[in-house]
User: Fold these one by one.
Assistant:
Number 1:
Amino acid sequence: MAERRGKNGHPVNATSPSTTLLGSLLADPQATAHRPGQAGESTRLDSSLPAQSSAAGPADVDAAASLPHVLPVPVETIGVLRQQVANDVDTIKKERRARGETLDAAALEQVVRAQIRVRVAEWAQEWSIEHTPLTGEQISVLRGELFNRFFLAGSLQQVLERPGVEDILIDGPWMFIDVQGQGRQRMRSPFTADEQALEWVNQMAAMSGHGERLLSYSTGKVDFDLPDGSRVAATLLTEPNLVISIRRHLLEKAGLDDLVTWGSIDTLLQAFLRAAVRAGLSIVIAGDMATGKTTLMRALGREVPVKERLATLEGEPELRLNYDPYGEHAHTIAFRSREGNGERDASGKVTLGELVDTSMRYRASRVMVGEVRGTEAVAMLKAMMMGGAGSMCTLHAKDPESVIDRLMVPLTEAGLNDSAAYRLIAAAVDLIVYVDRIDEIDLGGSEHRFVTHVWETAGISERGAVSLNHLFQPNEDIGEERAVPTTSAMNSRRAKRLARNGFPTNWRAQRPRGTWAALTLVGDGTVAS
């Protein structure tokens, strides 16, 4: 029989079982569930692998990539066993409902574990008739993979749990991992073929509630969330391999205090931005890719007074301000745009612009748009101008000088002429905050993300453009690349609103150089203080 090969060239033999790369990539299901003390589940196959520590390093990735122990289990078997367990659990749920009982999260986990033991024991007994029996350790790993596939991210779960992992991209046989503060690392993919990767994508998509739009060659791409909140984008619109991108939200709980600790803002900017949010000033946060725009806006969202209601509008859920189990922050309703049902099928599509109008019907006092990219900019700015005081959005701009031009693009695409677009920006936006990044990892240094500019809008200039008043900016005279106060006088109305919310009017005289800690840069050998 001819050997069948997958799209990326990996052999997929229909008669001889392909092996499943589990081994050191699999986490102990007790650890991944964060429920210590439950014995009898999975353990690591290689005791020489380093335990999880406070920082991931190349040794961790190399150990995971080596996969010294490979289970001789057909890929199809994992899927079949998982489906059997799912069917068992569904039956148990129906029986419980018929008796008027329900399964909470803890009880459901116990049921799943029990059914996994039963199904794996039955399968292992049949497998041993014609094959080498699995060891006790291998059976534990198989149980762990089934548990992870049922609740978590399957074979990728332990990679996701490595401390500091920000992004994972799988491109055919290779996996690229971006670790915070360490740059990019390359290793073998945990999937042996595109077919296996495709099965994982669709299984995870179905579990996330997006099963009505799975990945196929007719669909081309799919986006969904993993149980831990990580964002997955997978596509077959690439050649020759299926590509999977996973983005983690490491800084999901970060507040302004954390940003001060990390050097993204100083204590003066912290006090200024906190007062600006509480005073209801509308803010645009701009910057290039990976500069921390979303992290800053999420921190500002936590400063919205508890008495208010906040609506977040995103294509990909990154702000996650609605996850507030203790009610410590403003009530947040998380709206999410929706793509059509296929590449050429727009039915069911909901745009961010439509969501701006929708959110107002739920009595949201403020609106936060994850990233303004298209014609939703018009709806967003109108919401800022017509009652959404204190609303915020992020904007991709490669340098500080291009912020207004970058905001003009979606406005003109929406049909506004230059004059109308400038007037809309000037009327709707109070503050623009620019964040930047210096990456010196390849030079032996660190990655620095920080605010460099804060402007307030000051009406229309004589040339008909938006006039900006520089409140904070870098100061070359003292060698400071981060935002420090300027001598420009702030609009008196806004200054009074800030003062009523705890920010003094004489702030420039108190801290003319800001309160930044020293910044050491490797590239030019200078030290700013």
Number 2:
Amino acid sequence: MTSTARETLKKYFGFDDFRPMQEEIIETFLKGSNVLALMPTGGGKSLCYQVPALATDGLCLVISPLIALMNDQVQNLRRQNITAFSIHTGMQRREVISILEMAAHSNCKFLYVSPERLETALFKEFLPALGIRFIAVDEAHCISQWGYDFRPPYLRIANLREALPGVPVIALTASATPVVQQDICDKLLVEGEPPFRIFRQSFNRPNLSYSVFKITSRIHKIVNVLRSVQGSAIVYCKTRKRSKEISEMLSAQGLEADFYHAGLPTEERAKKQERWVKNQVRVIVCTNAFGMGIDKPDVRAVIHADLPDCLENYYQEAGRAGRDGKKAFAVLLYDDAAIDELKSLPEIRYPDVTTIRNVYRNVVHYLQLPQGEAPGHSYDFNLKDYIKKFSQDIQTTLYGLKALEQDGWLSFNEQVFSPSTLRFHIYKEDLYEYEKKFADYEPLIKTLLRTYEGIYDYPVYISETFIARRLNFDVAVIKEQLHKLHADGVIIYQPQKDEPQVMLTRTRIKTDLLTINREEHEKRKNIFTERIQKMIDYATDVSECRSKTIGHYFGDTALNDCGVCDNCLQRKKPSLSNEHFTAITADLKAALTKPLTTEAVFSLLKEHRREHIWTVINHWVDEGSIFIEPDGKIFYKQG
């Protein structure tokens, strides 16, 4: 590893050493090789392209479908005085032009771009001037139509690579099966290049205990787990309504809980997330809209109140527990109704052509798009208003849109939570004259200039609420003044977006002429059915090691039994006699007069086998006599 990379790591990120495999990945990428890196959630994927980019000249183009995550990355880099910008769905044309000009003519190191933007005429026009040194493809599984989250705009990356010969690419994902891994490499490889170097971190998480419970009372089991395992926790639910219901039931049981879902206003979501991250609320009950980009290492338990539809999602969400390396639990709950519901999903997720055409007709009418409307422009899409006007249920709408997206007719981004951005767009001497003419706006202008560094150079993220507090104005007044300054050409102001976005990726045609590739549609449906069956097999299997099942699914066949999941512990029970169980229990009581780490317990009870100690610990955790503290230490409730 070059000293430059180590110096870069220390200078910008404060770390003395790389995590396992990061060093080899970075070294390979710096030498110009194409890389596919499979690293678990929280495994440090972003450093694998950030360090090479900061250690060399030129710009790193980062392609990501997650707007909230892009914005977080840009803000984090800017806090370290690293120039970074993002371009994504929903931005106005002049804002995009402004960012591209700055990226091309400044010391910009990172440009985050949503895949929909790659083949626009505007992006192609600026591409030669950007000086791209590296390409990073985040959430790379999206490029494979055999993956669990296929997004056709990702296929445009292949054309981008053709336009940038010799520029190496690093593809990053936390979860991809062997078939998807190969498909990623095939889709991204340019003819004549050597094959991708594939790096895959082990899927072994020795500190994470996986358990599955078939339940009769969901809330009773959740409460039982949360009372046994102290510390920060996440409870995942499949619906917004259920997240609120479970949160209220937990609060009624004396547990500090709050709920989170995509339907809440942006500022409310941010407050809920911040309170949980700061441990002001212990449990966050949420849909899968929660968690991306949140770096909270001390989560002691992740509970799935409902069955996810695939192991990819389950592994990523469960993996948010125990990132600090201390003991943590991933608990999955299910009942027979949940199994039946999963089995019925393929027919719902992959609607027939008539249904898909009907969704297309309704959407283009809702957006008032005439036949012949050109692709490439984003439109706000208010789901509630649409459903009310067209009397079409939300499932039919969402899965119809997904089918249209997968066949390349449009792009649908359901989670566009983009904060407000602002940049001054007037010469400083003209601004002085404007302030004299419109004195009422001077306090706002001065506050913006004093509060946000670089606001004259590039769009910065702003908070209207924060500005209103500083000026002791009403938020509505601040927004009204910002819109006025924007209309007068003083600033370029882009208010925050909460609305989903729809963008045509083909010219709008007469609905009756719309066709779907039925063969590919059916194949995706069959693969989805297989993924569901793997999820059901995982939940209902009572013999195979949970970690091995997950690892094998993703191609990691080198795993041994973890020894700490429910199935491993169950298999060990017969070898542990009642007499031995009683002896270990007595020794644990004697040792746990104060909270201890598991390693300290093993040291004190070294005459016993570790797996036997684990069996006894987990038994008493289930019984509510042994507790896991927020820092991962365990203690015995005497009496």
Number 3:
Amino acid sequence: MCHTIKQHIPKPWLSTLQHMEYIDHHKSHIDTHLLYKMSSAHSIFVITSGRGSVVCLDRKSQLEKGMIIFVPAGASIKIEGSPWTESELQYYKLDLMLVEVKEDISNQSPTKVTTEQHESLAGNEIQEALSLIELNYTPWSSCLEALEQILRQQETTDWMEQWEVQLRFQDWFRVLLRQSDPKTETPDERARLQSSIRYIGDHYDRTITVDELAANIGLTRASYTRQFKRITGKLPLDYVNTVRLERSKQLLQLTDDRIHEIAQNVGFSSEYYFGRRFKQYAGISPGLYRRHHRQEVRVFAPYLEDFVLALGIKPVLQCSHHSWGRQHYLELDDVPEFDVSQQEAQFNLGNVPDFIMLGKGYDRWNLDRFEQVAPTFYVEHLGEDWRSILRSTADVLGKVNRVQDVIGAYEDKALEAKDRLARYMRGETVAFLRISASDITLYGDQQGYVGPVIYQDLGLTPHSRVQQWTRHERRIFIGLEQLSQLDADHLLITFDTGNSAKPGDERELLERDEWKRLPAVKSGNVYEVDFMTWMNYGVISHRKKIEDVLRFMD
């Protein structure tokens, strides 16, 4: 009999997340492998990077990025990383606690095998009961996003926040079980598709067609393509090229092979076609990618300096604006300024960059005119997805090994601050305003420079009008009548001098009766913050936002 997760967890809605951790084998304290014994809790392993193997009951199975493994209570496993891959084996480990409900289960299959039950079971039955079960979750990006959020929040001491963590886990767990339901796809079909994915990983350097892949596992081309995309989130040939290009990155970093040799080694017949696909995928040419991983680069990254500096690279220039000035919070006092508001500004002879990075809005400053000066990389991610911007920046600048430490340090800082604020704020409401000589801007709770940090990472409570008016917008303009309704307990404000005809114009609002009548103003709970620090994305900017909030509210 083949055991399914339903036999281990017949009532999944009674499961709770007992503990969760993120494990990087490279940083673990055990030489090459980790041993786990699932005593009274089931566990789920979600592989996020690298390759390796898992041994259970003397059976060895391969692990690779994208796999999700359920390990039943009572099982002992050994996980080993592969020494033949550059990416270290990394994964989430989730321990599940089951709420016991007394009922007659005499006609049901056992949900777990305890030590006392081992003696009454035959050897094959024990192996079946303790065998590993592979699960599915697509799209993969949604799976990782949910787990990342749960991990950040799980250490909270606030009992309502703890409930929120469990609700988020239940949402994730429900999707996982629904997509892994044998009724929607037979175990044999899942196994065949996984074998096809492994085949691609082993034979990416050969000519591969969709018809061949489909025929190998007995599916029509249409059925194979549909099921393959459901599991991986990619069309089959796109997935093949992704595997090839990721391998080519490793060869560019680790070998001195010529570009055309690397192209052939990973399955591209043409160096020209390889170069074109590589640039589409990585954002830069193969030769530039190799160079950046071997030497420091002189980079110009207007309004992306935060990301470059966080990775340990000092930019050759820092951007500034005639109205807003420069980003003082980055402390680049010895780095020359480049005024992006001067549409025809050019580089000085001693400050010509080797590499240019441009984010969203580059056309506002006419910065794409510098494509002829140096190779240019365009960041495609939205600012809220700063982690992905940091990862892509690290990839093109050869600093991938620093990313997890930078992100981890931020998340630790945010989690500690969130716990401290929960004890002090006790549900008091907050709003953020950007004030200029002509406008009052209210920032939303879900997007933008502010919302994801103060309302999500720090767990502050947005005023009801913030949620009602912005409706998931980054920001909205409000008038004095709306301002009068913003009776938040605390106000964070910053002043935009861009529309000021003379110094101080932007502060005239503070003399209005509508402002003076606000509860936060009367109670002295208005906090002015630095404009450039708060009107930016990036891990350094966000860290300083946390420090500001703690300074004012803790």
